[in-house]
Structures are given as C-alpha cells and as structure tokens.
Amino acid sequence: MSELFKAASLARSNVKEMTPYMSARRLGGNGDVWLNANEYPTAPDFQFNERNLNRYPECQPANVILNYAAYAGVSPEEVLVCRGADESIELLIRAFCEPGKDAVMFCPPTYGMYSVSAETFGVEQKKIPSMPDWSLNIDAIRDNLQNTKLIYICSPNNPTGNIIDNKDLVQVLEMAAERALVVVDEAYIEFCPQYSVASWIANYPNLVVLRTLSKAFALAGLRCGFTLASADVIEILLKVIAPYPLSTPVATIAAQALSIEGIATMKHRVATITDNRIALSEALSELPIVEKVYPSETNYILVRFTEANKIFKALWEQGIILRDQSKQLGLTNCLRITIGTETENVRVIEAIEALC
User: Fold this and answer.
1) Helix-helix angle 308-317:342-353, to 10 degrees
2) SS (HEC) of the chain
3) pLDDT of residue 333
C-alpha cells in the first residue's frame, strides 16, 4: 500500500504546479568565492554561553525588540521579530489576504519570494512591471488597486540595486490608504540609511517596513528579521506567527549584534563594502564585454554583459559563483555580483578580463 502512495496526490493543486524559489544554496555550486547570495564575505564572531536550552524561548525576546526599536527609531510596540524578512512576507499574506478574493502586488524585476509566497497561499498576484529606469509605474499601480491588500516594494530593489524615489512611495501610500498595506522591503537599507522610510510609520498607518540582520549585520545564517509597523498591524501578526519563532541562540546573538558595539561594527562593514563596490564597478566598466554596470545602493551590483551565460559558466567552473538574473523581466544578459573581499573582487575582475 505504501508503495502506491504519492504525496502529490494530496498536495494542493497550485502547489503541485508551482516553481519553488531557487535560493543561492539550492542552486548549488562548488565554489570558493560565493558572490551569489548578497551575504557578507567574512564571518562575525559571537559567543553563546546560555545553559537554558531545555526551556522554550520567548515568542518576542524583549532585549532583541528593545535593541532593534532603539536602532530603527521606532517604539517597541511597532517591532515584530521573526525568522528573516522572508517569514514577514508570508505572515502578512496569511494575516491579511483571503485566497480567491484578495491580491498582492509587486513590481518586477524584484525579489522572487513575493511571488512564491503568494502562490503558496493561493493568493492572486498583480505584477506591475517597473518603468525602464526601474522606477514605479504609478499609474498602473493606481489602476490595479481593486482587491489588492498588500503592495510589496523593495527599496533598494533586489536585484537592480536602485532606490525607489520617496516621492513615489508617498503617492502609493496615499492612494492605498484604507485599502492596502504598502510593504517596503528595506533588507539593504544599512547601505543607504538616508533613504529609510521607517520614520514614516507614525504618519502612515498602512506602511509596513521589512528589515533583516542577513546583509550588513553579516548574520545570514542566523535567520533573524524584523517587521516594523503600527502597533495595530503588529498585534494582528502576533496572532499568526509561530509560538517560538526565534531559538534562544538566535535571540542571544541578535541582541549582541544590536548592541552599541555591534552597530558600530556593522557601520564599519558597510563602509568597507561600499569602497569595494565602487572599485569593482569601476574596474568592470572598463572591460569590453561589459555593456553596463548599473548604479547600486547595496552590497551587490547588477552587470549587463554581451554574453552573460558564457561569463556565468566560465566563472562557475573556476569556483566563482555569481547569480544569473537573465530570466527576470528586462534583465537579459544580466548577472548580479555580490561584493566580496578585495581579494575576491580581484579574482572576479581577472577571470572576466581573461574572457575578453
């Protein structure tokens, strides 16, 4: 009997048909220069000495909440901590969208989990392509607000690296008032903190901001993220979040990372990555097989090549793993390159230069 059982026969029809999000680790590779997941290139050093792993952790660890609220400039009641910003994306859909009735909106090319999460829950997706300069198509967003409950806007945008104009964000917030939540994904905001909209939460009750410790804080392996929103929104999300979203080791290390010393270290990392990004961008811009290096406010750059597939495969074989974005809307022949150490960046330049 067990040999005849097929799990797919029980799966929801939309799940059987869907294509999963292909994370960097899921795509594999055998490299020693990993520049495909927008991680920090070297490991931080944190200590864990707790002896209470026999007890369940707090649902919302107070020291983590207080530290992040102080860092982000919001009140503790406006902070939810969870398993990376990815969990926040799903929590919002679970809490605010009814399958078959409501829709989520996002603006490709952008982060793929908005689509995957919506599809997982059987919620309609409204894909509003960005303008040629990757700014928001405000008119198209306005025309598609009917039955839209969530509008995901990534700023800086992944994989393009550009900031979304704050004036455009104001327009979307105002046109969506009392109709939809506008979710601004600020996963990379530490690289351009002057553009954060977290301080707007007091004035826009339909604004939600997503944050993470995975990028500038160099803790991608920790899986710790934050949702910033009005206390009313946070209260609703607390109804659907798992009982113990953060393990004790995660909460302990997150609190250390958000200390005064931890934040100072993060800012030093940002300065180093920014310098390396500028150097890598300038060097690649001079190569004849590079059509364009796009401006970036993040820890990665998007590069359009004459033959992206050739570059991707050649570097893959040398153990230099990049992220192919060619299948994204409008990104033909584009590769995304995470900023590595100075040594790693030199390897990238030399490897591509050898193909010219």
Assistant:
1) 120
2) CHHHCCHHHCCCHHHHHCCCCCCHHHHCCCCCEECCCCCCCCCCCCCCCCCCCCCCCCCCCHHHHHHHHHHHCCCHHHEEEECHHHHHHHHHHHHHCCCCCCEEEECCCCCCHHHHHHHHCCCEEEECCCCCCCCCCHHHHHHCCCCEEEEEEECCCCCCCCCCCHHHHHHHHHHCCCCCEEEEECCCHHHCHHHCCHHHHHCCCCEEEEEECCCCCCCHHHCCEEEECCHHHHHHHCCCCCCCCCCHHHHHHHHHHCCHHHHHHHHHHHHHHHHHHHHHHHHHHCCCCEEEECCCCCCEEEEEECCHHHHHHHHHHCCEECEECCCCCCCCCEEEEECCCHHHHHHHHHHHHCCC
3) 98
pLDDT digits (tens, 9 = 90+) for 3-12: 556 666 666 6
**pLDDT-derived band of residue 1, with 50, 70 and 90 as boundaries?**
very low
Of 199, 193, 220, 97, the C-alpha closest to 152 is 97
Tens digit of pLDDT for each residue in 286-310? 999 999 999 999 999 999 999 999 9
pLDDT in tens, 246-290: 999 999 999 999 999 999 999 999 999 999 999 999 999 999 999
Q: Quick: pLDDT tens for 128-170.
A: 999 999 999 999 999 999 999 999 999 999 999 999 999 999 9
